[in-house]
Design goal:
The complex is a heterodimer of chains A (about 120) and B (about 110). Chain A is mostly beta strands. In chain A, about 0% of the residues lie in helices and about 50% in strands. The termini of chain A are far apart. Classes of the chains: A mainly beta (about 120), B mainly beta (about 110).
Chain lengths: ~120, ~110
């Protein structure tokens, strides 16, 4: 049962344009969502997060949008740079407000290629 | 650099053997998590420890066990290894029980031959 889904295995964009990575989830109990970036042979690097009480969070070139009714979140990268080329994972957890475990459920990842 | 360290970086061993993976969390973090990334399963949560106590279990096999020591470092023990256990094993840490980002170590690549 894949509770967090990234339906696009790969995405290619031109340098300077916007990259939009999408993620869907099925469990309405999730209340905290995160995006991680991963290079080969390295651990995931935390990028940005959003709690379920917000619908948008911005940090520099990265913005995450959350649509709870659609159980959908997206990561926007503007402008995209060649150094952004990596695998991007979305992850979800429950327990921000309930004090439960913080285990992360990951999507399968999207490989972003930013062309110079 | 996330501040989370893992040793060894690579491990090659034979089926039936036992190995121990080690993780040191970021300074001040009390929670340690273990994840497995295999080719066909993506990143899967194995187990969480908080201040020395087990807090949550995921799809961790009975052949696998973990512990967190008083100095907060953690070890993941894998025994009776099978070919299918070959994977990347990541450790992550966070300050508390819930509601915070997790910071990942560089991983240990385990190859079972």
């Amino acid at each position: 049962d894949q509770q967090v889904k990234q339906n696009s295995p790969s995405l290619s964009v031109q340098e300077g344009r916007i990259s939009i990575l999408n993620c869907d989830y099925t469990n309405s109990m999730f209340d905290y969502f995160l995006w991680y970036k991963k290079y080969p042979a390295e651990g995931p690097t935390f990028l940005i997060s959003i709690s379920s009480i917000k619908d948008k969070n911005e940090d520099g070139r990265f913005t995450v949008f959350l649509n709870k009714s659609a159980k959908h979140l997206s990561l926007h990268i503007v402008p995209s740079q060649p150094g952004d080329s990596a695998v991007y994972f979305c992850a979800a957890s429950r327990g921000v407000y309930g004090g439960a475990t913080n285990k992360l459920i990951f999507g399968t990842g999207t490989l972003l290629a930013v062309q110079p | 650099d996330s501040g989370v360290t893992q040793t060894p970086k690579h491990l090659i061993t034979a089926t039936g053997q036992r190995v121990t993976l080690r993780c040191s969390p970021r300074s001040g973090d009390l929670s340690v998590y273990w994840y497995q990334q295999s080719l066909d399963q993506g990143l899967q949560f194995l187990i969480q420890y908080y201040n020395g106590e087990e807090r949550a279990k995921g799809n961790i096999l009975e052949r696998f066990s973990a512990q967190q020591f008083p100095d907060l470092h953690s070890e993941l023990n894998l025994s009776s290894l099978e070919l299918g256990d070959s994977a990347l094993y990541f450790c992550a840490s966070s300050p508390g029980l819930a509601g915070a980002e997790q910071y990942f170590g560089p991983g240990t690549r385990l190859t079972v031959t």
